Amino acid sequence: MRLRAEFTTEPFEGEGDPDPPAHAVVAREALRESGLEPEFGPLGTAISGDRAVLLPALSAVLERTLDAGADRITLQVSIDDTPRDG
After folding, report:
1. I need a labelling partner for 44 at 20 to 30 A (CA). Which of 1, 25, 30, 66 fits?
2. What's the pLDDT at 53?
3. Which residues make beta-bridge pairs with 73?
4. What is the arrangement of strands in the sheet containing 44-50, beginning at the earlier edge strand?
5. So what's the pLDDT on residue 15?
6. What DSSP character marks residue 11?
7. pTM (predicted TM-score)
């Protein structure tokens, strides 16, 4: 089963700053280390993947972003029924 997750990490820091906050960068790297490529944006991150890969990756995101200074993480997970290419 494929899932899609969208999340934001707070606090929002350096609005207008070209560099995202450390906790957001850590989240992106945790996903990449799991073999996933997130859609990383200024207001949040989205990711789709197989359940067996995505759920453990999200656990790592939660732990690592809190360790990196996030004080709130808002997470939404849903079944991804978007047709896959190929």
Report:
1. 1
2. 97
3. 9
4. 39-41, 44-50, 2-10, 72-79
5. 60
6. S
7. 0.86
